Records
---
Amino acid sequence: MSSVDHFSALSSCKELAYYMLFCGFYEDGCKLLEATLKFQIDRGASVSKEEKLLLEVIWSSRPDLRFAEVRWEPLSAEEQELVALQTRERICTTDYFFRPRVLPQSPHDWRDSSDPAFVEECARMLSWPSGDKWPDDETTREVLEAMQKSRSLLNGERPAPSIRSYSLEVGTALRVGTEEAREVTEQILENSNDVDWHHSSNKSWMSDCLCFKNMRPVLSSLSAQVLKLSRVDAGAACRDLVEAIESRLGGDLQVPLPSVGWNELLDRLAKAAFLVYGGDEYYKEVGIANYEDILFPPATQEEIEEAEDTLGELPADFKEMVAVHNGYAPISSNHLRFLTSDKV
């Protein structure tokens, strides 16, 4: 965390907390979220109504996870319903969506269109809450059909719509049924390469979904194959991040880092890289199927000596590192890379 601007680090911690909650790791997600909100309040920032609603929804089914110290006025049942409606309106009208060239004359025109943007525009028009009432059951099913048609029309080739549309699709499916919501959520997570917690815009769609009532049974039934975070990794990340945040709250700039060898350090970095970027196209193109493919084989003593003949004596720690793994694959074609000893 920067000693001046904590916004970026806190946002990343929140994104990871939301993803932990999305994976069903409620204890770890709530602990991390509690630490970030405590830090946020301590620095004079307020907690948004959406964040309050998200927590109230979680606490309604897991009262044991309620924060020991809630430092804001809780939302009443009426306020929770109002915030939920406002969230739905924001999802339906946000400018993050791409717009069709021709606007629909009727929201039912989506059936005759092959333009995914046009179909989504119809879905947003149909799903708009009327006053304080949600669309009726028939309209809700039509919205879901339109959203699914829009996604199928994209077929992974055309530019995808804003990630915000995912929360509209999941929220609509949830109003149809738990099983429908599970199927939609798994399809989104499985078929969309850019749906991971590390993309900043995903914090919005995942946090929106966490605000939906009755979402917990959906998340608890998701297949482990579509989630990219294990319980062990979630627990370790939560422990380390909470310790770092609490240390900063106490005035310390950084928690002392544990001392580990090169083999463990590089192994951890490779696992983290594959966890975050394993679904990206570049890794697929270069044939990286697991985290072990990221790390290059060790440099031989002859290779190290050849590099020193050209460059002069290399730092001792660098030679120790390349003797374990002589470089690793970058996360993209234009990303910074750890060069092998012969290319230094």
---
Amino acid sequence: MFRESPPVRDEGSVSFSQFNDENVLLQMWQFETGDSVFSSPVLIPASPRHPDASCAAECDPTPCDASTQHTTNGRQAYVIGSHDNHVHCLSEEGLELWKVDMKSPVYATPFHFSTAACDSCEDHSESQPHVSHYIAVVSTQGQMNVLNAADGRCVSGAAIGREVFSSPVVCGDKLVVGCRDDFVYCFQLTFRKVE
């Protein structure tokens, strides 16, 4: 169970708690962001590592201000947006794995989605298709990014140029998000191979 703590001296925090065998709620860890947290945490499910480690590097067409200490390495992780202008990825133990600077606060809850294979990589001809996990996130100033959930690298992005407080949603190859200008925007997702 996650609990978002109210801001203290303009600093936000997210904590993870769970019930023990006696049905007592125990706080397992707490992570401090640089500002308030209004978004809900998003679970990135565990998945096996891709057999070809070069695939992830080939799928990164857009430079992004990602600060990567570690990758999820196929383990379960949590993603949160914060008013500190960052999207944070946390391990099951509450350690920051990566963060991405979105240039303005992230109010809306990020959206997790996955694909059965990396659209832009060569056919790996493996018996079981790999699953690639992504996070769609939008800042209050309308910067929208699709991030590789493993390491926070941008794989696609666009600037709406208007205020956004709603969460993005991905259905198939379409990303949809509502905007403060009373319009709903729909974007075609593309993942291009970097040469």
---
Amino acid sequence: MRNSYLQGGSSAFVFMKKIRICKNGHLVDKENSYLEDRITHIQKRCKKCRLNKVNKCNSKPERMEKIRIYWRGHIKKNPRDKKKMLESVRKWSSKNPEKVKAHQLVHKALKAKILKRLPCRVCKEKKTDGHHPDYLKPLEVIWLCRLHHKEQHRKERLLRPPNPLHQQAQADNA
């Protein structure tokens, strides 16, 4: 029964600050670190744990294909969402011109048969994406299937040092 009052999404006041422990045992000191449930309005997992679980479920190949099919149909039926999607692509493109240029060069090299699409380096799947470890070398790509490509980006995101501007914005919102 040790610390039972703190387990399973419970809360307690420690040093006059409300602290919660999520279902996975993470200490959470802010109320807004929990995602709201539509029915109970309380989640037993913190945002980080919940999003990790969702990402694991959605990264399975059969689930990814279902999501892709859903969005293709959804965008055809809802032109406003298509506009939003195109706007977000334009915004990303304007923020990342070196990445856009690298993607275009790979596409042109594939068409000109300068580059050849290879099977996934990990699982040998034939349908692959080109992954750029370094965008300054646009024709040096690693061929990975969609699943392993997303996994590679997730690993790189975890290894990347935190952006101080992003941390400052989060601190300002708190």
---
Amino acid sequence: MSVNFNDLLSTKVDEAEKPKPLPTGSYIFAISTEDPKLDVSSLKQTPFVEFLCKPMNPLDDVDPNLLTQVKNWREKTQRLTFYLTDDAKYRLKDFMDKVGVSHQGRTFGECLPELKGKAFKATIKHEISQKSKEPFAVIDDSSIAVA
């Protein structure tokens, strides 16, 4: 990807705005068709799998006035992370059940590709960044349900 720095630097400083987070409430999300990220957490080195998810449709509990203030809200990606420890793998298994991925007798590695493009219902909540002290939107993984 080539970057045209002249275009980027020709923007007036006053036009730069802080992006607004998705409003709290329930949405239908779709998992990206990209491969999920497999990594370890920076602090405790805990292995995890992370999916990028896009909001497809807001549900009735999302404030439409706040949603219209979010620039390109349908393009906002939200991360959905599952830790791969023995005590946490059941959460990924439960997620697979909710989105209809058959896993009987199969490994997690065999099932992960089938999650691409799957839809699910979940709630967005706001958390406060430890660094900036600003709110940001996250998927409340305890709210995940069948779409």
